[in-house]
Design brief:
The complex is a heterodimer of chains A (about 600) and B (about 350). With about 600 residues, chain A is mainly α. Chain A has 26 helices and 4 strands. In chain A, α1 crosses α19 and α4 runs parallel beside α9. Chain A starts with a helix and ends with a helix. Chain B is an alpha+beta fold and about 350 residues long. Chain B has a 6-stranded mixed beta sheet with strand order 6-7-8-3-9-10, sandwiched between helices. The radius of gyration of chain B is 24 Å and the shape is elongated. The two termini of chain B are about 40 Å apart. Helices cover about 25% and strands about 35% of the residues of chain B. The chains are: A mainly alpha (about 600), B alpha+beta (about 350).
């Protein structure tokens, strides 16, 4: 290795080490210390305070074990940490139940309209989740479209029945308080409908990676289809499944936007958000953050552990060209019934948001569809100072974050794939750690560490916002870049050096053009996810002039007259940007898209 | 044209000695082969010449210039990679012109040299194609052109034909030899395919376990292997063990279960009383003429028809032998038949038993 190259490696690794030490390790250590160390002594009281009263009113376990369990469950339902855990588990299971059959069909069956399937499945991802809740609220409110439709349907049926004399009078169904009485489940439904595409990407990718000859061998030995799936296919795809499941779990477990807008307070992220303004003083918040961090880390490391157990596939020589089994007519109908129904359910919030965005204030009450349409919300969007500055702020932050992520991503991918140095594993770990690090935890840590310091977010949150976007999106960027760097096999670069090109020329003319697609995909993902990032934006931006989109949406939502409608217009804009972004990165990454969203 | 001097070159990977002190001289303009089984160190040696690896000891010189600490991109070698390593995002022209770009050759001269070299490899007219649109053989030619166009001091070829099918491979052998002769450059060619080495090389270095076992012209290494490894690796050989009874006139007389057999002394170390093996190529065994020396009786146990030759398994007093004979002059017709066979003592070689 030449001296120049060695200097370059040493300097870049040093810069990265300092960056991660300040913006990743220190905030986390600070929070952990705050949770356990108070008034100069080590304490667990903030954890017990968060859990106090858990055993109150329980009968003796030995005398009445069933009552005890029922009582314990009843008590646990009062505690945000358990509710959040339940939310994560239920959403993961529900997303699995949806994604598994979809993936099986998409990877193994040919049917009429198959080409449309992946686009339809990905549709829910283009909904900024915050905005989805607005749409859901519009649809499922007490006087919302769903209740009105149900009321009319039942009225119509009972009117018919009474007309022929089977009932004395038509029945007016009382409006159901969907969101009021079933807060937990509305969060589950909305989150599941948003996250099943991520599960699908993972399940489909791991299913596609299962060597068909392994299945054929089992079938050849006489195993029936279900047996082949249970004994061969499922175990082989399991590691990939866990990788996706852990991401979905962490996402649901730590999601702030959806429960906040649905006004479901009893989950940890909302509790943490409520404590954010006392981040410096109140150690209860630290304890909550540490609990979230612990659970997320366990989920992440668990999935990684399973992934590392994955047996190395025996190399097989060439696979026979995949011939997909053609679905029968009934099968096709069944597939489309499931896919269609699911997609419809998933896009109800989109539809509601699109409709709201064209609704004049007060124009959508007690009606199924808006009564009055207008374009004024879009006009407001670009004239209203808060809305406009939100758009421009987010644009600026995301562009900065994307540039930084690309530069860092390329540098890190290069260091990880092309150089050997002490601490390479640590660098890899630091870059990937944010996958297990919820945005809310990072933001809270920043608030705790940096308020009053040189990067004080209360004065100017821009540097910390941009840095937090970069830190949290870097894993995706680095993954995309590393995949590219690995794909450009050593020989392609060797050939260039052999012909007399220096390392830099080789990087510029051979490596970068070849990994360009991956870099674009990573950059686009970084950009769109930064634009609509919720938890860090809500917690770190406290001054209205620096509000990014998410914070503006949240504020708009509280404004009674036209707030939700302007928010919807913003949401539609967001959907367009997200759709374009996912389309572009999907085009560049192709089937490897599934590898991006996993543990 | 340049002479390559390799002096006691060593390379370790962890605890594995990939090269254990190799010394070689490759003459200017020579078509030189590194031949050996996988893991013998031949590719390591080639990559050391290219500069992709740094040696742990020893020296490499191109002419008078010591180059083992010169970075790869300043060695002026042209390498042809096993999988061609054509850049998929560049056209044939841009792939070939790349080395000239890096050398800042003016556009006019660049165009002339690229078209000249594409003509030499018979790929004129494909300039604007992308590598993905070419067949394996065409990619091979482009890779060769890319390596040659920069006027390299040395052309390095790393198993360049291993991804081609059998017919194309034999066409390309002649083609590459022709290109070598036309350009007159020093070629170093790595392969595990002895047919390639024997048919194309000026000289061959047979390698094994990080060492060079023998260097010589194809006929020399084939007909006079320096040791048992070379005898067995090149062409294959029957190995008959025994004990040396006496030596005379360059021949060793070895007592074997099949009788006393004579063979050229392959190693000077061999003296009477030593345990020895005779390496005997299958095609040297022929039906014995009446009264011929060096003959034994054998039973024909298997016969396999291979087209131009027939391969036999023979059993001579418990010694198993493989023999081949032209289909036109068979050794025998049926398994179970008894035949008397002989071989020319000067063509077989006796080595110390390992």
């Amino acid at each position: 290795m030449s001296a120049g190259r060695r200097t370059f490696v040493v300097i870049s690794v040093a810069i990265l080490a300092i960056f991660f030490a300040i913006f990743l390790v220190w905030p986390m250590l600070y929070v952990v210390k705050g949770a356990f160390y108070y008034n100069n002594h080590v304490t667990f009281e903030f954890f017990s305070a968060n859990l106090s009263g858990l055993s109150s009113g329980l009968p003796s376990f030995w005398a009445h074990p069933l009552d005890w369990m029922a009582g314990a469950l009843h008590n646990m339902a009062e505690y945000p940490i358990f509710v959040s855990l339940a939310l994560g588990v239920v959403v993961t299971l529900a997303a699995t139940a949806i994604a598994m059959p979809l993936a099986l069909v998409s990877v193994r069956r040919d049917f009429c309209g198959r080409g449309w399937m992946s686009a339809l499945v990905m549709l829910p991802l283009i909904l900024p989740p915050f905005v989805g809740a607005i749409g859901m609220k519009q649809m499922f409110a007490l006087d919302g479209s769903v209740n009105i439709v149900l009321e009319r349907v039942f009225y119509g049926i009972t009117w018919g029945l009474s007309h022929v004399g089977l009932m004395s009078a038509p029945w007016t169904m009382p409006h159901v308080g969907w969101l009021k009485d079933a807060g937990f489940w509305s969060v589950v439904v909305l989150t599941t409908l948003h996250l099943y595409p991520i599960m699908f990407l993972n399940v489909a990718a791991s299913l596609a990676a299962v060597d068909r000859s392994a299945e054929e061998a089992a079938a050849n030995l006489g195993a029936p289809r279900w047996n082949v799936f249970r004994r061969i296919t499922f175990p082989m795809m399991l590691p990939g499944y866990f990788a996706g499941a852990s991401i979905v779990f962490i996402w649901a477990f730590t999601d702030l936007g959806t429960p906040l807008i649905l006004n479901y307070q009893n989950v940890v992220p909302v509790q943490i958000f409520r404590m954010a303004d006392q981040a410096q003083e109140n150690p209860m918040g630290y304890a909550l953050v540490v609990m979230v961090l612990t659970v997320s880390l366990l989920a992440f490391l668990g999935a990684r552990g399973v992934l590392s157990l994955k047996p190395q596939a025996a190399s097989t020589k060439g696979t026979a060209s995949e011939s997909l089994r053609r679905a029968s007519r009934g099968g096709t109908a069944l597939i489309w019934l499931f896919l269609g129904g699911l997609t419809f359910a998933a896009v109800i919030p989109h539809i509601a948001v699109i409709l709201s965005s064209f609704t004049a204030p007060g124009g959508w009450n007690d009606t199924v569809l808006p009564a009055k349409f207008t374009l004024s919300e879009y006009h407001t969007l670009v004239t209203h100072p808060t809305a406009l500055s939100g758009l421009l702020n987010s644009l600026l932050y995301s562009v900065l974050a994307t540039i930084a992520a690309v530069v860092f991503g390329v540098l890190i991918a290069y260091l990880l794939t092309r150089e050997k140095f002490l601490g390479q594993g640590a660098l890899d770990g630091a870059v990937m750690a944010p996958l297990a690090l919820p945005g809310i935890v990072l933001a809270y840590g920043y608030l705790a560490c940096f308020v009053g310091g040189p990067l004080n977010p209360l004065q100017n949150p821009v540097p910390l916002l941009v840095i937090s976007y970069v830190v949290r999106r870097l894993p995706y960027m680095v993954r995309a870049a590393v995949a590219g760097f690995q794909h450009v096999a050593g020989a392609l670069e060797d050939a260039s050096r052999n012909l007399g090109a220096s390392a830099l020329t080789t990087l510029r003319r051979i490596t970068l053009p070849l990994v360009f697609a991956n870099l674009v995909a990573g950059a686009v993902l970084t950009f769109v996810f930064s634009m609509f990032e919720v938890s860090q934006s809500l917690i770190l931006a406290q001054d209205a002039s620096y509000f990014p989109i998410a914070r503006v949406l949240y504020k708009l939502f509280d404004r009674l007259e036209d707030g939700p409608y302007v928010a919807s217009a913003m949401g539609v804009l967001g959907m367009i940007v997200l759709a374009a972004g996912l389309l572009i990165s999907g085009r560049f990454l192709g089937k490897r898209m599934g590898e991006i969203f996993r543990a | 044209m340049i002479e390559i001097t390799i002096d006691n070159l060593a390379k370790r990977f962890g605890k594995v000695h990939a090269l254990a002190g190799v010394s070689l001289k490759i003459a200017p303009g020579e078509f030189f082969f590194l031949l050996g089984p996988s893991g013998c160190g031949k590719t390591t040696l080639l990559r050391l010449l290219a500069g992709f690896l740094e040696p742990d000891g020893g020296a490499i010189r191109f002419g008078e210039r010591r180059i083992d600490n010169v970075p790869a991109h300043k060695r002026n070698t042209g390498m042809v990679f096993q999988n061609y390593a054509l850049w998929p995002h560049m056209s044939v022209f841009r792939n070939v012109a790349y080395g000239l770009d890096v050398r800042r050759v003016p556009a006019e001269e660049k165009a002339r040299r690229v078209s000249e070299i594409l003509g030499l490899v018979r790929m004129s007219g494909y300039e604007e194609r992308l590598p993905g649109e070419l067949s394996g053989g065409q990619q091979q030619r482009v890779a060769l052109a890319r390596a040659l166009v920069i006027d390299p001091d040395v052309v390095l070829l790393d198993e360049p034909l291993s991804n081609l099918d059998a017919k194309l491979r034999s066409d390309m052998r002649a083609e590459i030899r022709r290109i070598h002769d036309r350009t007159g450059r020093t070629f170093v060619y790595v392969t595990h395919d002895q047919k390639e080495a024997l048919s194309m090389a000026d000289r061959i270095a047979v390698m094994n376990e990080g060492r060079i076992e023998q260097v010589g012209a194809p006929e020399e290494v084939y007909t006079s292997p320096a040791n048992l490894f070379v005898a067995k690796f090149l062409g294959g050989a029957n190995v008959v063990s025994g004990r040396v009874k006496s030596c005379s006139d360059g021949l060793a007389f070895v007592e074997t279960p099949a009788g006393t057999l004579a063979a050229r002394i392959g190693s000077r170390l061999l003296v009477a009383g030593d345990a020895a093996v005779i390496a005997l190529r299958p095609e040297l065994i022929h039906a014995a003429a009446t009264g011929e020396a060096n003959a034994v009786d054998a039973e024909l146990s298997e016969r396999m028809y291979l087209g131009e030759i027939i391969q036999y398994q023979l059993l001579a007093s418990g010694v198993e032998l493989t023999a081949t004979a032209p289909s036109a002059a068979p050794l025998g017709a049926h398994p179970g038949e008894r035949v008397r066979i002989a071989f020319d003592a000067r063509a077989a070689a006796a080595f110390p038993a390992e």
